[in-house]
Amino acid sequence: MHRTRVIPCLLLSGSGLVKTRKFKDPVYIGDPVNAVRIFNEKEVDELIVLDIGASKERRDPNYELIAEIAGECFMPMAYGGGVRSFEQVRRLIRSGVEKIVVNTAALESTSIITEVAGKFGSQSVVAAVDVKRSLLGGYKVMKKSGTVDAGVKLENYLHHLQAAGVGEILINSVDRDGTMAGYDIELLRIVKKHIDVPLVASGGAGTLEHLKEAILDGGASAVAAGSMFVFHGRHRAVLINYPDEATRNLIGA
C-alpha cells in the first residue's frame, strides 16, 4: 500500500536549529545532529533541512555540517539553502544529500533545475516556493525569506518549474508558517491544478487532522511540518516527536 510521506522540516541558522513564525522571530530549538538521531529512532520517512540564512547572506552551504547531518541520517535527506550552482549540488550529493531544494536560484533562472535533473534525475531536485496571500485575495510568490514580492505570477512560475524538470514542488505558506493553525488548503488546491509532479505541503501543520486535510482536501502528495515535530503542548516546549507507523498509515486513508 502506498503511504503518504510525512516529513519533518528542520531550519538551520548557523550551526543550530531554529523555528520561525511567519518566517520571522527564529527561536533556538537545539542541535541538528541530536535531532536527527531522535528522528532515526522514530523511523522518519524523509527529512528536509533548510539553511534559512545562506541565500539571504549569499554564502555557500555549510558543507561540513551538512555532511555530518547526512552521515547520521537513516532516512533520505533533502537540503536547501545557498545553492546557486551545479558544482555546489554535486558536492552536496557526494556528501550524502539525496535531494537538493532550490528556491532563490530557481527564481533567478530555472536552468539549475534542468542541469541537476539532467545529471542526477528529476527525483533529486525539489523547488521550494514561498507564497503569501495578497491583500486583494490571490497569492504572491515571495523571495528573501518571505519579505519581498518576487514579481512572478504563481501559476506561470509553477509551469516554468515543471517544464525545467523539477521532481517535486514544496509549497511554503508564509502566512501559516509556525502558526500550527492548519495548512492553507485553498493555496494547495490552486497549486495542484497547475502541476503534475508531487506537491509537498508546508506551513501551518499542528495536528494529524491538518496532515489529513492537506492530502485529502488539498491534493498534496506529501506533508512537511516543523513546529508540530519540535514543539509539544500549549507552551511550545521543545520536544522532538513524530507519529508512529500505524498512525501515519491512516493519514492518507
Descriptive account of the structure:
The chain is built from 10 helices and 14 strands. The model has no long low-confidence stretch (mean pLDDT 94). Strands 1-4-5-6-7-10-11-12 form an 8-stranded parallel barrel, surrounded by 5 helices. The protein has 253 residues and is an alpha/beta fold. The termini are close together. The protein is 34% helix and 28% strand. It has a single domain, classed as TIM Barrel.
Order of helices and strands: EEEHEHEHEHHEEEHEHEHEHEEH
Report on the biggest sheet. 8 strands, parallel, barrel
The geometry reads as: globular
What's the level 1 CATH class?
Alpha Beta
Specify the helix fraction band. Answer: 25-40%
**Spatial strand order of the main sheet:** 1-4-5-6-7-10-11-12
- CATH architecture level-2 label: Alpha-Beta Barrel
Find the CATH topology.
TIM Barrel
Unreliable parts: none
The termini sit apart by 10 Å
Number of domains: 1
- Separate helix tally: 10
How many DSSP-defined strands? 14
CATH superfamily: Aldolase class I
- What's the gyration radius in Å? 17 Å
Topology:
Blueprint lengths: L4 E9 L2 E6 L2 E7 L1 H10 L5 E5 L11 H10 L4 E4 L5 H9 L4 E4 L1 H5 L2 H10 L4 E10 L2 E7 L4 E2 L4 H11 L3 E6 L11 H10 L4 E4 L5 H9 L5 E4 L1 H4 E2 L4 E2 L6 H7 L2
In short:
By secondary structure, the protein is α/β, with parallel strands linked by helices. It has helices spanning 32-41, 63-72, 86-94, 104-108, 111-120, 154-164, 185-194, 208-216, 227-230, 245-251, and strands at 5-13, 16-21, 24-30, 47-51, 77-80, 99-102, 125-134, 137-143, 148-149, 168-173, 199-202, 222-225, 231-232, 237-238.
